[in-house]
Amino acid sequence: MSEIKHPDLLVIRGNLHTPDVEIKDGVLIIQGGKIQSVNDQGSLAKIPPSATVLDHRGKKVIPGLIDTHIHGAGGFEMTGKGVSGAASYLPSHGVTGFLATTHFLISRKNLLQAVVEIADVIQSEPIGAAILGIHMEGPWVSPDRSPFSKPEFCYPITREDILAFQQAARRNLRMVTFAPELPGSLEIIPWLKEQNIIPSVGHTNASYEVVQKAVSAGLNHSTHTFNAMQPLHHRQPGTVGAILDFEQITAELIGDGFHVQAPIMRLLIKAKGIDKVCLVSDAVPLAGLPAGTRINWHGFEIGTNGEISTLPDGRPAGAYKLLNQHLKVLVDQKVATFNQALATATRIPADMLGLNKGQLKAGFDADLVVLEDDFQPILTMVAGKVVYENRPQ
Predict the structure, then answer these.
(1) C-alpha distance from residue 372 to each of 158, 219, 269, 341, 348 (Å)
(2) Most buried of 7, 79, 159, 271 (most Cβ within 10 A)?
């Protein structure tokens, strides 16, 4: 994808969703890749004469979407060099930043090589969505908590293993998903946080009591809540019960309406509060490809009907919809208001990663999207540069 050039001083007009507040007929001034000011129309006396004005009045202007759990899109696999193609593709769905998420379907040797390749791509700074780091989903998980079961590739987490992967990643490792019930897992949590790596509970048989100990050690995140973990029972709260109960935990939510049904999504938000829910896609390389497409993904046949991605027996195989489409599900199914849903995909993941992104606010990175009413982008901008534009024919 070629970069679309614009002058350094840029003005965007539209209905600004910051995400928490809507400013109708607002004005953004962008310079040097940063938002310089956020104004309502009346407070802006004069647009600088040197500015290029992009007039999108009547359209939603939102912070760029940030996906902290995504395995691929547009036919591109993120566990390796394909992350470059995915980064180019994702702005067409409003994603301006993401954690390249690996999986546990390949050997440790091949996974180390894949992490090296992701780090190479990060260093090359491809045009498109910003690669904000790496999320390693396993291999430190309980394989019986995944339909993609390759027990020979799963094992307990250790400091030595994380150090090896962090070296391969050139210190781009930002999140790890692991099962805290496995031997030695609880002891590593404080050290992970010292390394600026977010520890996340997932693909796990952890009891309420084990998660309680993990939280005491510093655990503060859960991977695709409700999926691939010990479920909630009124006499055995399990992993899900602990996630709902401990306010320290920010809960990932796959919002495609298939992995988690709307009533349960609403209950999650009621239990946690909107500021403790992080929307993720968990998309696989099938995402965005035509209905009927089938691929062999590391020995597993997966396909899509254009709505979901499944194994031949109908079980979920990652997700098909991308983050803008998850927003639409949350709004259409009355799980959350637009601004609430938007916060879970912008401000909340940005705050979690400690980034000046995810808000339309002076001093923040100029990562933003202009949306049509159907949640499809008209324009996507990363660091003040337009990387996707859907111009009317």
Answers:
(1) 46, 38, 26, 16, 23
(2) 79
Q: Is 173 left (phi over 0), alpha (psi -120 to 50) or beta?
A: beta
Q: Is residue 207 part of a domain?
A: yes
- The CA-atom distances, in angstroms, between 56 and each of 81, 261, 285, 361, 372 are 36, 34, 32, 18, 10
CATH code at position 118: 3.20.20.140
Return the SS3 of 99.
Answer: strand
Mean pLDDT computed over 10-35: 95
Which residues have a Cβ under 8 Å from the Cβ of 98 and sit 6 or more positions away? 66, 67, 68, 70, 87, 90, 129, 130, 131, 132
- pLDDT category, 42, cuts 50, 70, 90? low
Phi (first) and psi of residue 12, to 5 degrees: -120, 130
Q: Would the pTM count as exceeding 0.85?
A: yes
Residue type, 32: G
Rounded distance between C-alpha atoms, residue 326 and residue 349, angstroms: 15
Q: Which domain holds residue 50?
A: 10-62+359-389
% the chain with pLDDT above 70: 96
Which tokens go with 172? Answer: 């781009």
Q: What is the mean pLDDT of residues 77-105?
A: 97
Q: Report how many domains make up the chain.
A: 2
Which string of DSSP letters, residue by residue, matches 121-188?
HHHH--SSSEEEEEEEE-SSS-GGGSSS--GGG-----HHHHHHHHHHTTT-EEEEEE-TTSTTHHHH
> Are 108 and 223 part of one and the same domain?
yes
Run of H or E including 97: strand 95-102
Residue in the structure block whose two tokens are 């399990």: 238
How far apart CA 148 and CA 316 sit, in angstroms, is 10
Mean pLDDT confidence for 10-31: 94
| Residue 154: count of CB within 10 angstroms of its CB | 20
- Read off the pLDDT band of 1 (50, 70, 90): very low
Sheet of 34-40: strand order equals: 34-40, 22-31, 10-17, 52-63, 368-371, 377-382, 385-389
Structure tokens of 190? 């404080």
